[in-house]
Design brief:
By secondary structure, the protein is an alpha/beta fold. The protein has a single domain, classed as 3-Layer(aba) Sandwich (Rossmann fold), CATH 3.40.50.300. Helices cover about 45% and strands about 15% of the residues. The strands form 2 sheets. A 5-stranded parallel β-sheet has the order 2-3-1-4-8, sandwiched between helices. Strands 6-5-7 form a 3-stranded antiparallel β-sheet. Strand 5 and strand 6 form a beta hairpin. Helix 2 packs across helix 3 and helix 6 crosses helix 7. The structure holds BIS(adenosine)-5'-pentaphosphate and magnesium ion. Magnesium ion (MG) binds next to helix 1.
Length: about 220
């Protein structure tokens, strides 16, 4: 039986941050389509070149490209007992495609992280990521030990190109209009857990612990 978790929520709510902790705790890999696409952009692959413009504008990358990178990743050995998906699905078509990946007996839950717009904007404005290993920081809430240097690999910390104010606004709008409605697709499965993720990271993790019941 595989344990499959979908981390659902708007930009900046903490999908990557919460996902990293859950991955350690539940011993299944965290798979972020945003991270997979950024890796393609960094390596200048043709898929990355195609995706870059959409990402810089804060728009969704076409489904086929996202599914291509994801398919390759979930087929790897470390995902055989399950995985946590961060940022996928984001369209109804992606949700339908994902149904084809599930096997009978897979145990799956959807964690719907919610928070207020002011918190999201503050978190994204203060976010820095490591240009080498991708580790995520928040300059006041979850700061690095040394300014602008990654605790794990010593890499330089940078802003994500899509964390500029105008792009943040666009991403929040795209989430509300194109992604949020797909929650309805899952509501019938009785596996949607809504979590208030406005609080600190320990508070959010505690809330998840409290309400998620694995069978
Ligand atoms: P993606 O990388 O998925 O970005 P996103 O959904 O906009 O979400 P973020 O990564 O910005 O936020 P997060 O929720 O992970 O928050 P984080 O943990 O970093 O996608 C980027 C782009 O790729 C998309 O715009 C699109 O173009 C494309 N894409 C990706 N997937 C796609 C798909 N399926 N289909 C089509 N296109 C796709 O936390 C944010 C900040 O807050 C950090 O600084 C963190 O340290 C801090 N923080 C986190 N939790 C807390 C807390 N509890 N308290 C205080 N601070 C906190
Ligand atoms: Mg993320």
């Amino acid at each position: 039986m595989r344990r499959i978790v979908l981390l659902f929520g708007p930009p900046g709510i903490g999908k990557g941050t919460v996902g990293a902790s859950l991955s350690e705790k539940w011993h299944i890999p965290l798979i972020s389509t945003g991270d997979l696409l950024r890796e393609q952009v960094k390596c200048n692959t043709s898929l990355g070149e195609h995706a870059r413009a959409f990402m810089e504008r804060g728009e969704l990358v076409p489904d086929e490209l996202v599914v291509e990178v994801l398919h390759e990743r979930v087929s790897q050995k470390d995902a055989k007992d399950g995985f946590i998906l961060d940022g996928f699905p984001r369209t109804l078509k992606q949700a339908e495609m994902l149904e084809g990946v599930f096997l009978a007996g897979d145990e799956r839950i959807i964690l719907n992280l919610e928070g207020s717009p002011a918190v999201l904007i503050e978190r994204l404005s203060q976010r820095r990521i490591c240009s080498v290993c991708g580790a995520v920081y928040h300059m006041t809430n979850i700061p690095p030990k040394q300014d602008d240097i990654c605790d794990f690999c010593g890499g330089a910390l940078v802003r994500r190109p899509d964390d500029e104010p105008a792009v943040i606004e666009k991403r929040l709008r795209v989430f509300a209009e194109e992604t949020k409605p797909i929650l309805d697709f899952y509501r019938g499965t009785n596996a949607v857990y809504t979590i208030n993720a406005d609080g600190t990271l320990p508070e959010t993790l505690q809330e998840i612990d409290r309400i998620v019941k694995w069978s």
